[in-house]
Design goal:
The structure is a single chain. With 568 residues, the chain is α+β, with helices and mostly antiparallel strands. The chain has two domains: 187 residues, no CATH class; 315 residues, no CATH class. Helix content is 22%, strand content 18%. The strands form seven sheets. It has a seven-stranded mixed β-sheet, sandwiched between helices. Strand 6 and strand 7 form a beta hairpin. Helix 3 packs parallel to helix 5, helix 7 runs parallel beside helix 9 and helix 9 packs parallel to helix 10.
Length: 568
């Protein structure tokens, strides 16, 4: 059966979800009077009959959110030194306001740390103290529901960040579960009604406060960071308190936030975590791991072999994966997560670029040390706004993320988000937004748009409130620049998140639109010269969507696609 308008448009802004279209009566009645008493199928038939007798028509597409949807979100967050500002940046993303408060979204959000301990066996500590790594299992993938106000051992920076993001220790789950829940419009955390300064409306900030309280894990965790093992333990069923997190048939989104590489050690090789070190002065391409202090540098030495000895300072080049690495092979983790659910998306916020993709690997000597145990890694990236916000070289995380982050037309970015660019962290949630309704089609238009004397499309595009989706936009969007529209037309999907579109359209000062002939064959069903619309969200877009607005597309049309009226 032919669908109404035969169209499935999308407009995703930051972490905002996709939308579908419907033809609406009021403006069309100016051309084709259609009684409201008719059924949808009768209205379609009447409209098609009217258009068959007329040369000019106006077609309306009103974009609207799906009625109800659900998602489970697992945040795997590093709690190693240097992670406080990254945790804060993730916690304060404005996208959480929409994800956590939209009554149409049933959502679970869980948080796990990257600490899985270091000992070979329970109750068998190393002879040399291992500091924060002095345990067998660490947090063991247990979901973290403790308020940061109740965490002990937080650094002064972590305490300050906690005070900013967590107003009260009571903002944690109240139903015994160790993750945030909003189902059927009700949450499992205390209500916190506050006035939104932008709208003057009273809104419940309870879920956002709880996320801030729980996500601020601090920076005093084990320096042997194991995000992949921690995520596996969170979902493999061995922690009974985690058992209700994943729901059958509900999409699962996993987001990693770490500023160093994965160092998940094979169980039989955990003796390599022994913090006791050797003095290794002579250059040695096969220097034992105990030549290096436990943490990022020993992890690098366990994972790769470079052209230069790792037990010497200087740049390291041509670093290749060791065949005898004691770390867990990445294939085991890829296979594990792939079997969890067919509705899986995994994203990462990690230091970029990765080792082997342009990142420098440089060993320097820690101040006050003189042997191989004092070697440390120079940062692979730094924030332009805050040089203290940095990330260490990584390879394993990027390789693990590759099967879920590879360049496909329906995914927003072929690479992970850079942990050194907090202003881009929202991209880690963009894939979640795209997948919420399983978008699979290009935004093709089932009509031919009328043009004015200057060749510009006769369209009225702009924001409308969801509850007034048939109203006309108060402030119509302008057409985008020629460069931006050319990028939309040439892109594979016609969507704003494609890298070539972003580069061409980011100079646009406000939200704008394009209507052009599609350069590819995505719209061939609509005949020769089929058009599609490109919607570029400007700086105000995320705020508009969070406060209940969608996008209305209304165009004067010269012809109606055959698909819509087929069989009428």
């Amino acid at each position: 059966m032919t669908r109404w308008l035969g169209l499935n448009l999308r407009c995703v802004v930051s972490a905002l979800v996709a939308i579908s279209t419907a033809c609406v009566a009021p403006p069309v009645e100016e051309f084709c009077p259609i009684p409201d008493t008719l059924t949808a199928e009768q209205k379609r038939a009447a409209l098609c009959a009217c258009m068959a007798q007329s040369q000019h028509h106006q077609m309306d597409a009103v974009l609207s959110l799906p009625r109800q949807y659900a998602v489970d979100v697992l945040l795997v967050v590093g709690n190693t030194p240097g992670m406080v500002e990254k945790q804060r940046a993730l916690a304060k993303l404005s996208e959480w306001e929409w994800l956590l408060n939209d009554p149409r979204l049933d959502i679970h959000v869980a948080i796990v740390s990257t600490d899985v301990g270091s000992w070979v066996a329970a109750g068998q500590p190393f002879a040399t103290p291992a500091g924060a790594c002095d345990s067998f299992a660490g947090d063991d993938g247990a979901m973290q529901a403790l308020s940061c106000l109740d965490r002990v051992g937080l650094s002064p920076a972590a305490q300050a960040a906690c005070a900013e993001r967590c107003p009260d220790r009571r903002f944690v789950p109240q139903d015994g579960r160790r993750f945030l829940v909003r189902e059927a419009g009700r949450s499992n955390v205390p209500v916190a009604m506050e006035t939104d300064p932008r709208t003057g409306q009273r809104v419940d900030r309870g879920m956002q406060h709880a996320l801030g309280c729980m996500l601020m894990l601090g920076d005093s965790g084990c320096t042997i960071s194991s995000p992949l093992e921690a995520a596996k333990r969170a979902l493999d069923g061995h922690r009974p308190e985690n058992s209700d997190f994943m729901r059958p048939g509900v999409p699962l989104h996993i987001l990693f936030l770490t500023d160093r590489d994965d160092c998940s050690m094979q169980p039989s090789q955990r003796g390599e975590n022994d913090p006791a070190t050797l003095r290794c002065d002579a250059p040695d391409l096969n220097a034992p791991l105990r030549c290096f202090q436990t943490g990022p540098y020993r992890c690098l030495a366990a994972d790769v072999q470079c052209e230069q000895p790792l037990n010497q300072t200087g740049d390291k080049t041509l670093c290749r994966t060791r065949s005898d690495s004691p770390l867990v092979p990445l294939r085991r983790y890829i296979d594990f997560f792939s079997r969890l659910t067919p509705q899986l998306s995994i994203r990462g916020i990690v230091p970029m670029p990765a080792t082997g993709q342009g990142a420098r690997v440089t060993a320097t000597q820690r101040a006050g040390t003189f042997d191989s145990a004092g070697l440390m890694l120079d940062p692979a990236c730094r924030s332009g706004a805050d040089p203290q916000l940095a990330g260490l070289p990584q390879r394993r995380m990027s390789e693990f993320l590759a099967p879920w982050s590879h360049a496909r037309w329906d995914l927003p970015d072929p690479l992970p988000t850079n942990a050194c660019a907090p202003e881009q962290y929202w991209r880690g949630l963009l894939d979640l937004a795209i997948r919420l309704d399983g978008f699979t089609r290009s935004p093709c238009l089932p009509w031919r748009t009328q043009r004015d004397a200057q060749g510009q499309p006769r369209c009225w595009v702009g924001y409308v409130p969801w509850e007034q989706s048939y109203s006309l936009p108060d402030e119509p969007w302008p057409l985008c620049s020629a460069a931006c529209c050319h990028a939309f037309a040439q892109s594979g999907s016609g969507q704003f998140w494609e890298p070539t579109v972003r580069v061409a359209c980011e100079p646009e000062p406000e939200s704008c639109y394009c209507i052009d002939k599609a350069a590819n064959q995505d719209c061939f069903l609509y005949g020769e010269g089929a058009e599609r619309i490109g919607l570029w969200p400007g700086p105000e877009a995320r705020y508009r969507y969070r406060t209940g607005y969608g996008v209305s597309v209304r165009c004067a049309a010269n012809a109606f696609a055959a698909e819509v009226c087929q069989g009428t």
